[in-house]
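# step 3/5: fold
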Amino acid sequence: MRIFCGVGSKQSEEERQRDEYISSSLEFSKILVNRLSSSRRSNRHDRLVRILFDRQVEWPQEDSEVMEWYKQLQQLNLETKFRSIEHRRHTDNRLFHEFLLLKLLDGGICRVERGGDGSRVDAVRLIGCTPHDLIQRFTKDDYDEFSSLRPSELIGDIHFTREFDIRDVLAICYSVQPTPACTVYTLQRYNCYFLCWTIISVLTRQLESWETMASTQWDAAITSELDRLSNLSTKDAKNVFPLRLLALLDPDSSHPSECLINRLRVDLHSSNGTLQKRNQAFAATLWADNGRLAMRQGLKSTFKSTEINLMSSESACMTRFREAKKTTAMELRASLAGREPFVKEVLGELNQPFYEIIVRVFRLVFELLILVKPERSLPPIYSSILNFAPDLSTLFLRFPSFPLWRPIYQQYWNNVPAWWFDFAVGICYIYFKVMHYIRLYLLNVGNDRDGAGNNRHGFRRKLETAMDLIYRKYFTQFLGRPLREMDARGLFAGANVDACLKIARLVEPGASFDMFIYDMLEPCLLAIPLPAQGHSLYLHFDKKKDAEMTVCKFQAVYLEPLILLHAERIDTYQLGDAPLVYDAVRNTITEVWRGMPATGFRSEVEMQPYFLYPEGFTKSLKEINKWESEKTLSSE
């Protein structure tokens, strides 16, 4: 968080705008708190009611004040259902405030909003201040009179193709309140805007059924893709790494990939639970653009199981693969004795892709830490950096004094004595080992908590997930190119295949065949259309006529631009970094969706939550892609 005080100097325009934003936002919160205080003396159904639930008690908490108010509406036969919502903001420049109007079927209006009760200092810190989620029912005439004193403008008018109830909105607020991050009111993230976005996001998500893909649709797509892969020509199969590897391992077979294809037909069939895993991951998905993450994480265990089952098969290619995996350093030294030129050539090809992977992984960590460092406690930051120290030792420092390093020494370090090279490698190896143990210590003492003592959504686990995803992406991407070049030069001829596999396993023992299998099938998996209930919505905003759209499009053209605009405003006012705010809001709304009461407010499919990208990851990944594009252009 970036907060600057212009003490003793002339106030800049940015500082003036920031102070105005803070003051005006808190000013309306004070108005709400004062109105709430006066309403507590009334028992009328049209009073302002605080939406407050006990975090320890399960839904629906019928004895809470707001549920008593809801039952009062029902007893008076007052309408509680609605099919449209107006998202509005106050036009008074002194008041930064947004709210929702639920347009009830009988013409009545229910106003929902959030305010904060606390000091100016707390409102801009992670510790935050006390949130007040509020609701009030009006007749149309009463609201016209009420709104004439507080003019507002329309941000968006959303019309649903099905009915919702006030109870649905209360259930969302029930899920908001125990969600760790938004238990407090902060101007940067969890303010009145946040509650509006959350209610709209969760209600519109209920229009979709991404988690109900039918087995017929899934099995048909999988069968079609596996048939296509099975019938690839020898030339085309060379461009698919798993198929090419199997062909190299079993050159005498006319169908070397048959063992893999048959294994996938079993493991990916809906009857084997794979579709259930996919649906459970998508049930925990709120944002459509997280579909790729949901698919990869949801099916991760399936593809790992495929690898394990494949490796245990008795096929000729898998027998050779198992032998390579079991190779020790001493065995490889003996088998490669006298073949230094071959080893040098193989390592020369493998060195560049591994280097590029590490550069990108650590560039991502660097981009994340630039954003995260002002708002994170020290242990999680150090654990983020040190988490990948063992990977460096794996790639470069696992085998000090081992003959495999001789070609590298001869090519790059021949101007220094060999003993100095061995000594430097040994010192570096010890250093990274020490860093590894420090990492383990920090992970034990670090608790990923903010200033208010709230768990920060498992930041370390989410960062590790992000690292795993980018590692897998770049590992398969960069390793494919040198392998094709090595194949073209005949380095895989005869027994060389076994030697190359052994070298690769020693250089990167963590590399898994399941990465390549998933990457081979990912385009097919993501191309399967998301199931839809047939519900859509109509949106009127930005002086445009009503437009019918799906929830996916609605998120892209309405919700996400609003969140991004707010994040950029916060960045402009120097109250926080836009990428952190943007990702934090999206992630927290997802957590609210996952915490919704199970009965009646979400799909009946059991959720299987997966770790989300850490705050700042979206921007950091874009920076990497931009850097890659610039690097590509400069090399052409």
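# step 4/5: annotate
The first helix runs from residue 13 to 39.
# step 5/5: archive (pending)
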